[in-house]
Amino acid sequence: MNIQIFGTKKSADTRKAERWFKERRIPYQLVDMKEKGMSRGEFDNVLRAVGGLAALIDENARDKQTLTLLRYLTEDAKPDKVFENQQLIRLPVVRSGRQATVGYAPEAWETWE
Fold it and tell me: In 3-state terms, what secondary structure has residue 28?
């Protein structure tokens, strides 16, 4: 299993996800969203795995202007805007191959092989 955790060090849910994998001795790679972020391919794969943009967006994000702008964009333009402004993504995003979750979701991680 090749686990990637996209999050930030200040995110409580990211720290909980790290602890969950450490306790089970499952190796993972932490990608700090403030330093690096997701590549376009990673973003598109996560988008498909979680079932669309609505599951990926954090409605409590600090960038309220961009959140408001998303409501008025066409459906085709929304993923590009979220990719440009990755601070709108709910953390952590945990990936394993083609599977992905958004937020703290240990019940889903237990089913991964």
Answer: strand
Please give the order of strands across the beta sheet that includes 3-7: 28-32, 3-7, 93-96, 99-102
Report the CATH architecture of 3-109: 3-Layer(aba) Sandwich (3.40)
Q: Delimit the domains of the chain by residue range.
A: 3-109
The predicted model scores a pTM of: 0.89
Q: What is the pLDDT of residues 56-76, one digit of tens each?
A: 999 888 888 888 888 898 999
CA distance 22 to 79: 32
Which tokens hold the place of 15?
């720290």
Helix spans in the chain (H)? 12-23, 40-50, 53-56, 64-72, 78-84, 106-109
